[in-house]
Records
---
Amino acid sequence: MKTELLAPAGDIKCARAALRAGADAIYLGLPAFSARAGAGNFALSEFSETVRLAHLLDAKVYVCLNTLVKESELEAFFESALSAWNLGADALLIQDIFLGKELKRRYPEMVLHLSTQAGCCNVYGAELAKEYGFSRVVLARETPIEDIPAISEIIETEAFVQGALCSSFSGQCYFSSFAGNNSGNRGRCKQPCRKLYSIDRKGFESPAYALSLSDLSVGPRVKELLDAGVTSLKIEGRMRREEYVSAAVHYYRAILAGLKGEIPAWKSALARTYGRGGYTEGLAFGQDNLLSRKVQGHIGERIGTLELKKGKYYCKGIARKGDGFKILRGGEEVGGATCTGEGEGGFYLSSEQKLRAGDEVRITTDTSLAETFRSRSLHLAIWLSLRFVAGEKPQMHCEGYTLTGEEPLQTAERAPLTEDELIRCFQKTDDLPLAPIVEHVETENAFLPKSQLNALRRAFYEGLVAYRTPAREQLAPRTGACTLEPVPSQRTAIIAEDFEGLKADVLILKPRDYARVSPEDVTKGEGEKYLYLPPLLTAADEKLIAPVLPLFDGIFAEGSYGIKLAEKYKKPLFAGAGFNLTNSFAVSNLKAAGAKYFVLSKELSTAEQRKLAAEGAFVLTLGNVKLMDLAYCPFGRTCKSCDRRGEYRLTDEQGRAFPLRRYRLSGKFCRFEVYNCVPLAGYDAGTGALVDASCRSDGAFLLKRAHSPEGALAGATKGHAERSML
Ligand SMILES: [Zn+2]
């Protein structure tokens, strides 16, 4: 299958920029249910226009409906999906895999892609997506390159190649939701990972962008992704400007076409339009240059060092008046500057800050680029054949489409039609994005008044456009009911690192080091024993845990891959809060898939949780709230310098201290989790009560209060108990 280059379209300008630069497909959001609520997004009329243009240019349009959907929003969600489809979307991107299953049940005609927000990172997740009717998965950015071939054999895969990286495993970030009351799972991320934090470890105590990842850019590794079976290369950036979209598409287009001579120039253009932290190849390929601790935001491309010339700031190199710069000193940003004019083999700059000779000058706005991009035409080359012969009906043909005039052409008494006249006439397309090339023209002694010739031309192009952009067959709304029977429960469950002294219906072991789990760990405590599995589970992780799984009664997994994994190992499944269960279709489809227990979304209010409290339901009521899953080490490149401490404190500028828990699964690096700065003590939802003691040693105390959590912990928050996520 042909490789697809997929570009973001935050608004109609970016859509046109992407298509002009040669994207095979674009993805965009409509006003509702888009994971980028802050992007311009598309009104329905703009959307129709964009679909028509894209289809005319042989490009596809994917619509993002990739947020979590609450019970009260289900009808609006199904309506949005249907209208996007009926308006011609080529695929819909969905976060909630269970809701996708319901959508596919109602409308088998729809093409669904599983959003990266669903966290598909292994063959089990891929199998489930395929079984539920998805045609493609957008791989979790943490998926190791060596695991991609096996996934790509199951289902078509799409991988990110460029753009911003989330610090947390996608779909599993609750930082903005709990600490900022705007849910990342609803497209409202306030980007707490881009703020300053200090960590209580030597060398990390001063405030830095401790969780801020550099932008992804995998140009030199594209071949490896293609060899691994990836079908679609995705550029991130629905919040970014059209110049960035243009540059990114040109860059990857040049790589895919093997235009080695063009690659450096486009790479430079891309760095000038947007680049955070000097780029990383991302988690698929390791952890090199992953964090951008010292600088935040766009840092452009290095152009030279600052000199002082006759009391003015000067730099060697090429820039022109109006270009913008960032100035760095010792790797840290000291200010901005603009170009005031050229001269003496370089250019002069002005700045509001006091700069020094030797400062690093990086160009962040290159005003010449916009012109370069706009000079490219947004036109599809088409090849025409024309036959205008006296006595015959005129014939116009283009790639599968033919228009034949109704009347035979008259014989010219004088001045018959010439080839030149026909070519000139058909080169006009009345604003259509077509660039006709008349490949074949035959005319013989024919006469046609100019007005009639023009009318034929217009009819031909109209017909051609209609032929190339057939209207979508309209689907009528179809419904489906889903009733859940709330079943009150007094069950208790606890997540803990050690079962010593614990008694609950379910004990969930969250090991510090998965390689060291022993039979002894499981003999302690009373209750059904489950093994905790994080949202990222690689093939190497599975190898590591497979030998100890028989020790446990069941599997507690934070991702939907757990369904297929539990089937394989013939163990009951406890679906964690990472399943993000927010509506009745999600709960009933999960139950149909055989889950024994499940935790409802921790972003729902207690009132919302009560309505979804079917048999087996749990609600996180007491203890720690996990905000982030980091598949990387925030302390650097290797574990050679690892001090093996179990827990650190991540402190923000307001002095709030968030526990940072270290653990090991497979691989070269430790992994980390960020917990909320305050514990949770919510309400009893009448369901099973889950206690999270991942970073606490008072599990036995908490368990006794699991069903009366109010006031159980000093300084605790109620989380979303009273106020559902935004
Ligand atoms: Zn380590």
---
Amino acid sequence: MEIKVLENVLKVNEELARRNRDFFEKKNIHSLNIMSSPGAGKTSLIVETLKRIKKDIKTAVIVGDYTGKIDAKRIGKFKIPTLQIETASCHLDANMLSQALKNMDLEKINLLFIENVGNLICPAEYKLGVNKNIVILSTPEGSDKPLKYPLMFSISDVLIINKIDILESVDFDIEKVKSTALKLNPEIKIFSLSCKTGEGIDNWTIWLKSQIKV
Ligand SMILES: Nc1nc2c(ncn2[C@@H]2O[C@H](COP(=O)(O)OP(=O)(O)O)[C@@H](O)[C@H]2O)c(=O)[nH]1
Ligand SMILES: [Mg+2]
């Protein structure tokens, strides 16, 4: 019985996600769903990317957090359309996103970052209708995470390995993570970078820009 209820919820979510997808297509907005554990670097990646692309690409940001507005405040300095959703649940869903889209001025916007709630489980279950799902795994979290949370890594189009600046101090096997992620999802695109030192970020921003039709 419980399984049936969850199936229905996900079915309704999928239909709403399709509508979000149509909206993005119609408005020519490239949308990214950024997922990770708490603290892996979702907001840092958005901030560091904005620093490098804000002159060329009109961008907006939606931040989903269980509670509070801390992350939206960190984005505030860029003076771009930013909206915080307080989810009171462990993930964003397609309905929350569509409500947020109705409350933002997205005229002329070509790129939308959506920061999901921090965990590697629920956000993987709820499609949002975005162009790309991005998962960030940071080096202190351990190399076993793709095996522990396989759904997250199989539904993601991009894996960003963040915090490579502290690789020496943590027990993290980059090659093992890459090969496990590729086994789960042979199409996954992988970037290794540090939001702190900036190493590797240009590879990511160059690729991202190549995905956007301005
Ligand atoms: N050493 C190091 N710290 C980082 C890096 N990226 C983010 N951090 C730090 O990790 C913490 C969590 O980052 P945040 O962007 O808030 O993660 P979020 O919870 O996924 O949004 C902050 O203290 C960041 O300064 C990195 O590449 N290297
Ligand atoms: Mg954050």
---
Amino acid sequence: MSVYLTIDGKTIEAAPGATLIDVAADNGVYIPSLCYMRGKPCLGTCRVCSVKVNGNLMAACTVKVAAGMEVAVDDAEAADFRNALVEINFSEGNHNCPSCEKSGRCELQAVGYELGMVASRFPYRFAKRSREDAARHFFLERDRCIFCQRCVEFVRDEETGRKIFSIDARGWKAEIVIDVALADRMTGERAAEVAEMCPVGCIIEKGRGYDDPIGKRKYEIKSLRQRVLDGETA
Ligand code: SF4
Ligand code: SF4
């Protein structure tokens, strides 16, 4: 049995209990996000997918659709909230895209372009977090971490099930840490997947970077909005 809801005034049929951000994408409505990965448990850390649900701001990755729900994505307050969260990420860390190995393949960069961001309204913090290169496969460029927790929750040692990444300390002292011994047990193939999972250029695969000349394009991955419009919602 289906339920009917509206997104920006358009009636949409969906499976009851489906996740709002997926339902929107399946119906050609782009909602930006940074931590959410379709098919994986919701993390709800970035809140960049916030929309109005029955008049209240909610992260679309945390909402299960229900009959009669009224969703507003194209809403001035919700859009400003989303933009502010993206801008905070740029001002909290150090994001010098032209000198970043992930430039062109970075989800934060892509979302910044999607939202038409030019500069952050918040003061730049110029974070000073140490780099890490002890792991066999990875560099950690910690100043670029947006604390989405994808690596913390979705990367585990295959044999023991133990987590390989974690967040140390809190507030402005927080930083991502890696269990080097466990990380070094990964195959090169798995390591490449893990680096790709990081939505920004924090987990960098050793031996890879600057694959394409800098300065040729806005970003290399197909526009996230265009992927949704083209029905490529995975
Ligand atoms: S992580 Fe993304 S946003 Fe940050 S510098 Fe690299 S490309 Fe730019
Ligand atoms: S290292 Fe990357 S995947 Fe891990 S929390 Fe930071 S931004 Fe997210």
